[in-house]
Design brief:
By secondary structure, the chain is mostly helical. The chain is built from eight helices and no strands. α2 packs parallel to α4 and α5 packs parallel to α8. The radius of gyration is 17 Å and the shape is globular.
Amino acid sequence: MHRRTGVFERLRHPSPADLVTAVRILCAFPMLFLPARSPGFFVLYLLGGLSDALDGTVARKTGKASPSGARFDTVADCVFVAVALCKTATAVEIPHWCRVCIAAVAAVKILSLVIGLIRDRRVVSVHSLCNKLCGAVLFAAPPVLLSGLPGALKTAYGLCACILAFVAALHELRMVLGGNALKP
């Protein structure tokens, strides 16, 4: 019988994948205190992103993939994204339409979370190809927005990223409503 473990249990006895996931959280906190356009910020941002790309592979390769590991990954993602978004949003001017899109995506994602919590009494985590593609595009957003690219290119990138994020959020909601989501 598989023993159910929580995030805090995983911290006491971390697997190699948990350690890779923890890198993302460990990178997020110093990012709060660095200027968004500094080399240190970008190094930590890259390391955090790399940990996100590798933790699932490490978990599968070591036979340690688990529902609690997926939940820990989700927590690390939330912490990392929140810090990166806050730092980027304070360093560049984000147009009103983009803020509205970010709020709409957040609302759909929160709705998916609440539905999963009410219906399944747990966090429902969707690791679909659509979400992974969206994650890759959004990961590139801070470097693009903080770069010296012309404003029109940044706007075009932002528009594409917002549309993709909204489509991915709706796809996730559809999967959660249909019961097709991966349930940690």
